[in-house]
Amino acid sequence: MHGQLDILDRIGNTSLMPLRHIVPANGARVLLKLENENPTGSMKDRMALAMIEAAEADGRLRPGGSVVEYTAGSTGVSLSLVCAVKGYPLHIVTSDAFAREKLDHMQILGARLQVLHSESGGMTEKLTREMIEAARRITVNTGAFWTDQLKNEDQIPAYHKMADEIWSQTNGQIDGFVQSVGTAGSLRGNAEGLRRHNAAIRIVAVEPSESPVLSGGRPGSHKIDGIGAGFVVPLWRDGIADHVDTVSTEEATAMALRLAREEGLFAGTSTGANVIAALRLAEQLGPAATVVTIMVDTGMKYLKTFGTRLS
User: Fold this and answer.
1) Cα–Cα nearest to 295, from 186, 191, 221
2) Of 58, 146, 272, 300, whose CB count within 10 A is highest?
């Protein structure tokens, strides 16, 4: 650990806030974990710090070393922050399918970018696999430490800690937890952490309805940044979720705009997907229950994306 206080000490311990206006007619209260309070405005700050510090601890990442990762954006921004503070050069593989603001943010924090073209303009299995291969080649050529977020289990303890925060913030009054699946690290870590406290908590995973692979459907192109890789991701485990819910890009975007206008909470589309699934679960569980979901990041990362919806 580092001696003096720095920006990385501001990661975690985020607020938990009830939705006031966007609520189910006769359902549970829905609480949102405000991960936009992290330094880069994203939940991914937790996992980026955990992956880097685990690699430092066991010698995979040494002083003078460099780091490589493929990312839809938020993990890359978070790694850019951590590497800037710790002094590691960072090489990011990303795509023009993702929010331009995130790509700019990474470069502002000092990362080098390789931007792959998306034929469909959206997230697809082919694009994910191309990004992974490009990151693998950079690793081979440079000897960098590859965080390899889709396979890296070092992120999971960071989300066990998040689950402990949620448990204490709700005083143990939590009946359901809802989270969309990117790497599956946050869903799995939170699910494991919450079930250690109470095995009966209902866990719902969320994926894009255009690419419902966890539900047994076919992969497809969608525009919900950071989730729905197009294949069953390595960190996913059968049984980690009691149910997999699907939400379309259109529904998720519309809910993100509603959250901004009706709750003053400006978040990205994956948060919109989370809230839709949380409202569905809240109606199932009834008015005595409490459902927690995640405000994954700030909508400031998607200003241009949302801007096209306003004309």
Assistant:
1) 186
2) 272
Q: Is 120 a catalytic residue?
A: no
Q: Are 274 and 294 in contact (CB under 8 A)?
A: yes
- Segment 110-118 mean pLDDT: 95
What local confidence, expressed as pLDDT, does residue 97 receive?
A: 87
End-to-end CA, the chain: 48
More confident residue, 284 or 308: 284
Got the DSSP string for 160-224?
Answer: HHHHHHHHHHTTT---EEEEE-SSSHHHHHHHHHHHHH-TT-EEEEEEETTS-TTTT-----B--
The yes-or-no answer on residue 270 being catalytic is yes
The pLDDT of 46-62, averaged and rounded, is 98
What is the model's pLDDT at position 115?
96
pLDDT at position 174 over 90: yes
Which one of the listed residues 74, 221, 270, 301 is annotated catalytic? 270
Q: How far apart are CA 81 and CA 124, in angstroms?
A: 27
User: Of 44, 86, 223, 301, which residue is the catalytic one?
Assistant: 44
- Specify which of 43-57, 70-84, 86-100 reaches the highest per-range mean pLDDT: 43-57
